[in-house]
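User: Can you predict the 3D structure for this chain?
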Amino acid sequence: MVQLSTARYGKDNIRVYKVHRDEQAGTQDVVEMTVGVLLQGDIDTSYTQADNSVVVATDTMKNTVYILAKQHPVSPPELFGAIVASHFVEKYSHIRSAQVKIIVHKWTRMTIDGKPHPHSFLRDGADTRNVEATATEEKGVDIRSAIAGLLVLKSTGSAFHGFIRDEYATLSEVSDRILSTEVDCGWVWDTFHTLKDVEAAVPKFDEAWNGARDITISTFANDESASVQNTMYKMCEQILAVVPMVKAVDYSLPNKHYFEIDLSWHKGLKNTGKDAEVYAPQSNPNGLIQCTVSR
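Assistant: Here is the predicted structure, written as structure tokens:
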């Protein structure tokens, strides 16, 4: 005897671009997003009995995202994600939960001749602002905000020593090293009981995102890092301190290694220890350090 344990489905990689035109100021603002939708509910028969009468077509989901983007603000993404997720739970009585994931792609206004250009933008980094909003029947809206793909590097101010040494260990202890990582940082908000509660918190979302980004960058740069583990914990502590509505912060930091190159074989050329200037960036394998800090 078998049974369907879990079922959900949806539309992924919905590309959305929206422009806001301020006729009085003569300026335009743009937002580009990739949106994903997943639905759960009383849909088991579509799997077990080929009953499509309970299926909201994924093409319908795509159309819904476009229509809601036209009818509602898409910034901050936490609000738009909550709007889309709440729509599916409220519109279709058999849908119990809707998860919406949003990736906001960077478009930064150009500065031309020392002035912000009214309608021209550039992508000045691969990092993205991400949101996951889940609306659940009789519960409310859960939101996780995130920074992803923020590539950072410091050429000194990081050490790693005192770790377990045994018959498997070959890594040398270092008091100074290059530290580089691609930041994935998320923070989980207290549950919002209604969409109106999300709307009331709108100013907090941008504040939290900017604050988390600033804390991440400044702590990374200024901390005399004993380890990635300790540095990321300090980041979590600070974010929780400045954003009271957040109940947990998580980081995932891959350690991007840069190895010294021993060039002594060439006429005794010194390029290790304090003489190291030329390094070999590594792709893999790499360390991966993760943590979640909660109240």
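The mean pLDDT is 97. The chain has six helices and twelve strands.
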